[in-house]
Amino acid sequence: MAKKTLEEIERIKSQLTPITFLEELAQSGYLLEYVNKFMKNDYENKMSFREEIFILLQKYQEEPIDDIDIFYLEFLNFILINFNNKTTNV
Amino acid sequence: MFESKAISTKVKQLFEKVNQNAELYLSIVNKLQEEFDGLKEDRKNIKLFEEKVIQNVNEITIDLKTSVKDSISELDQSSKKAMMLHNELGKIQELKENLSLLQQKLSSQSKDIITAVEELKNKSDRELKELEKTIEYRLETDLEKESQKIDARISLKVKQLENKISSYDQKIYSLNTNQIRDSKIAIYEIEKLKKDFIELKAVVDESQQNLMNDFDNFEGEFRKKLYNYEMRFKDLSKKMEGMDKFDVDISAKVNKDDTIIESKGLNKNLIIDKEIKKLGNVIKDYTTIKESITDSIALAEKKANIAMFLSIISLVGVVLILILYSL
After folding, report:
1. Given this model, what pLDDT does residue B96 score?
2. Which of A40, A76, B21, B54 has the highest CB neighbour count under 10 A?
3. Is the dihedral of CA B212, B214, B220, B225 positive or negative?
4. What is the pLDDT, as a whole number, of residue B41?
5. What is the pLDDT at residue B278?
6. Is the dihedral of CA B49, B52, B58, B60 positive or negative?
7. Which residues are CB-contacts of B260 (< 8 A; sequence separation ≥ 6)?
8. pLDDT confidence of residue B161
């Protein structure tokens, strides 16, 4: 029991992080607009920043976003191409 | 990801389908892997079976080869034997034919030979009889001639032998007389040598006896002298002891007149020295006499040996002369 309570406490501690400015924007539903207006260059060129934005959007957005669909479809395409290549080589 | 509302439903459905397909694919791949593993094992087994089969086939082929070789060699040998037998059979048949021919020839020839032999026998009998007669006649004549010749030769030889025997008799007589004379001379010489030897021996014995007597006399005298000297030495020692006692008394009583004591000590030493010198002279005389006696004994022995040697040589000479005369 004690072990389980400790694990629960650890899990809650890990979730207890300070809310960032971008997270606040995502909660209010203005993150994508803000990024397209003020951080377009980073959003389009920096992959890590783009992934961070996508995570926030997936967390708080209520409507589907085309960029995320495209990202996942590209990823799926890449995986399928790799699979195809590997299976054909074997 | 699928709980998020940011992703469209179509994409979600697509991913679900992909997921289902992947699972299907995985199950198929697993099945394929299992089949592949089974195939691998089958392949391994087949390979092992193949190796075994190859090994067995190799062994069988080797056995077959050896058996085929053996059977071929046996066949060769048997065929060779058959060929030989065939050849021999042909030869035997030829020989059989030749034999029958030869038998016929021999039967015809044997009749001729028998007749020829009979003729020869008759002829030889006649010739032998003639020869016997001629040989008998010749032998008788030759024997008579030879016997006459041998008789003449024997008579001549007998005469020659008689002459030789008479001459040998004369020679033997003269040799005998000479031998008797020489032996008498030799015996006379031997007796003379014997006498000389006995005389020499007597002289040597006498001289040896004399020397021994001299030596015994000298030894007796020497012992007597030694006894006298021992006695004198004992007297002297007694006197010396007396003198020592006298000296001790004087030193105890009067220790003044040292000069008298010294003169007495000097006299004592002089007497001892004289006695020792005399003893030394006596020992020297003894040793010189002993040496001269041993020398004279050795000389006498040498002379006796020389005389013995001369007498043996003369005896050997006489014996040799006798042997030469007898020859």
Report:
1. 92
2. A76
3. negative
4. 95
5. 73
6. negative
7. B250
8. 93
Residue B15 and residue A59: Cβ atoms within 8 Å?
Answer: no
- Cβ atoms of residues B20 and A79 within 8 Å: no
Residue A68 to residue B6, Cβ atoms within 8 A: yes
AA letter at B142: D
- The whole-angstrom distance between A40's CA and the closest CA on chain B is 19
At a CB cut-off of 8 Å and minimum separation 6, what does B304 contact?
Answer: B200, B201, B204
- Residue A75 pLDDT greater than 70, yes or no: yes
Chain A interface, mutation test: which of B1, B2, B3, B4, most A Cβ atoms within 10 Å?
B4
Give the pLDDT of residue B212: 84
Q: Choose among A87, A47, A50: nearest CA to A65.
A: A50
Are B181 and B321 in contact, with CB atoms under 8 Å apart? Answer: no
Phi, psi of B240 (to 5 degrees): -60, -40
Residue whose structure tokens are 């699928």: B2
Asked if residues B178 and B303 have their Cβ atoms less than 8 Å apart, the reply is no
Across chain A, mean pLDDT equals 88
Interface contact flag, B5 A72, Cβ < 8 Å: no
The residue of chain B with its CA nearest to that of A80 is B18
pLDDT in tens, A33-72: 999 999 999 999 999 999 999 999 998 888 899 989 999 9
Domain positions in chain A are 2-89
Q: Given CB atoms, is B32 within the 8 Å cutoff of chain A? A: no
Residues of A with CB under 8 A from a CB of B: 54, 57-59, 61-66, 68-69, 72-73, 76, 80
Dist. CA B215–CA B296, nearest whole Å: 12
